Amino acid sequence: MKKQKKEARRSRLRLSYRARSTVTGTMFFLPWLIGFFAITAYPLIYSLVICFHQVQIKPGEIGLEYIGWEYFRQAFAVDTEYPTKLISSVCNVLMGTPLVVVFSLVIALLLNRKFRGRTVYRIVFFLPVVIMSGPVMSELMSESSAMSINMDIMGIRSILMELDYGWASVLLTFLNSFVRILWFCGVQIIVFLAGLQKIDRNMYEAAAIDGATAWEAFWKITLPHMRPIILLNTIYTIVEMGTASDDATNVKIVGAIRDIARPYSYAAVLSWIYAFCLLLLILIAFVLLKPRKGSE
Amino acid sequence: MSLKKDRTYWQRKTYWLIGSRGKENSRLGKLTTYFILTGMGFVFLYPLLYMLSVSFMDTEDLVDATVTWIPTHLSVESFLKAAKTLDFWSGIKDSLIMTVIPAGLQTFTLALTGYGLARYRVPGKKFWMALAVFIFLIPTQVTMIPRFLLFNSYKMIGTIWPVYLISALGQGVKSSVFLLIYYNFFNSYPKSLDEAAKIDGAGPLKVFFKIALPMAKPALVLTYLFSFIWIWNDTTQLPQYSTGAATTLPMHLQQFVERFNKLYASVGVSTGGALNESIRLAGTLLTILPLILLYFLVQKQFVESIERTGLTGE
Predict the structure, then answer these.
(1) Which of A67, A217, A244, B193 suits A182 as a labelling partner, its CA being 20 to 30 A distant?
(2) Where does the pLDDT of residue B4 fall: very low under 50, low under 70, confident under 90, or very high at 90 and above?
(3) pTM of this structure
(4) CATH 1.10.3720.10 occupies which residues in chain B?
């Protein structure tokens, strides 16, 4: 009897403790929640709604007239610019992302080693994070020589120019936008570096004792441990490259906002289509890189 | 194994990346590291160096084909013109108004949110986290227009308040990233500290301010710096709501050519009224100068905080 009573009281106490925890936690969490509903969720849904409506700006109010999928049809069938821009943007992201991820992993691996002057190098490699921004990038890109190093080492470029295969022109584009792509690496290097520092050093020691070479250790220890972080960085890179304000599609979207015949809604349609493509890419990345079952 | 011996052992063993083993190869490994990093670093710094070099050139040097990197004499003329075109002082004032406090607000609100989510029993925790990630994936262009209409209906367009409101409610530029950082950070430090304080009679707010916040210093530094940079550099979202009340430096830069032509239209091309590469790059450099200064000021804390934040969780 006594024991039961005690248990009941304890459970009640625990429950009230739980409830208190919920209330306090929610209080901490509340500002973000209010913000989310007021300035993120509502606009998000609203922008979906106006995709299917013609927006009419009347003095003092905004009228909506339902038109269905018309603007989606126009985006692909009538608009001459949008489909090509969309494809080139998606291709850019698709090809840039693996490059950025691999480069930042290599740089992070090197920066993670112990050598003199490491801090100086770290400062250098984190710098793009500070500078990267739309107008700065577009200024630099417009001064074509600032963002592309003359990479005509050993005549690689001139050889590529001579070839008129498809892959040659792709390679050439890469050489030309090499610096731009590398400048997307800043945050990813930081994230990789933080991840590398978390790997238990003892594991490498154990592997070395068992006779593993450094090369094997990299493939068997480092990479599997970095897998979730690689996924994280891949997603981050896709978003970062996709939302860059000098991206062709984004320029088009911003221009379409003040389209006189179809204000707001056509831009909303274009941005949702683009967002959908990016989400598709992210999904692919996730399927390819998702943590394997059984590991960890 | 003594610690010292252990360390030398590891100095040898950490050259696994290029597969070199043993002491005799260590110098080669080090050399390779320096070589690759210097090469990559050069590519990284190239635009900056180029900007620095060209912006100090005058018209003569620009035309002169024999001058590639080092100007024959340092000329600050480009900077003066660029500063005038950018309307530098008013731009920097507006930029600071739009950045310093909002970045602080965002840092604080997200710390609260991350702490609440990590340390307390919030219903639907996983759902909210997933939602935060989802928001990050949606391009900002999508929400920009409805937000504009929303703030318009509150008569906030053309004032600086939208930026403050967005930051104070933790919905700013890439805020989901910071939320994840905080969440990981507060999840990873020992709960017993909180409990000890609670037993000593501290309330939840006191625990947060006296224990959680001081411990989260690296995360706070990281978040503040990134918030600052991202708000400063933003031209597509926040400043659009505040046109008229505050025009930030990057916004001035965006209209650099038009502004220049307006200013110097009457001067005439022959008397230095022509817009050249040097002036444009000087303008670009001036726009990011405050960020570079800030970065060098806090770089030590910044690099340290990356190592201590536990950015990536488990």
Answers:
(1) A217
(2) very low
(3) 0.79
(4) 81-309
